């Protein structure tokens, strides 16, 4: 999925977009619902993203539906196309697959460059 915070676009207040993915969900009337029927607005815990979400629910574009493809791989593909991690127009701080399920010293957030990028974003 691709979120667009329309008010932020209109007011020229980046970041404007977030690219993510979700398994076992449905999409109705512009909203993603998880398998329990709750609205889903990303697993992102970034402070500035959560603040933007409190001010406005983004418009949602489904960019790919494919049960056979690894959703993390598809998410990463779209993020790389727009250089989302390093693009100030995007909330994404890491590329998909770069931190999910990873812990300890191998987690990307242990990298000083990534930590600085995350610090500046919040």
From TrEMBL:
Source species, domain of life: Bacteria
Protein name (Swiss-Prot/TrEMBL): Uncharacterized protein
């Amino acid at each position: 999925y691709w979120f667009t915070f329309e008010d932020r676009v209109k007011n020229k207040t980046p970041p404007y977009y977030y690219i993510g993915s979700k398994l076992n969900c449905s999409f109705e009337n512009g909203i993603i619902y998880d398998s329990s029927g709750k609205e889903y607005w990303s697993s992102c815990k970034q402070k500035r993203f959560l603040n933007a979400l409190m001010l406005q629910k983004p418009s949602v574009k489904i960019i790919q539906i494919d049960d056979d493809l690894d959703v993390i791989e598809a998410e990463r593909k779209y993020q790389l196309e727009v250089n989302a991690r390093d693009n100030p127009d995007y909330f994404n701080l890491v590329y998909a697959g770069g931190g999910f399920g990873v812990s300890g010293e191998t987690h990307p957030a242990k990298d000083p460059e990534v930590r600085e990028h995350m610090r500046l974003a919040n």
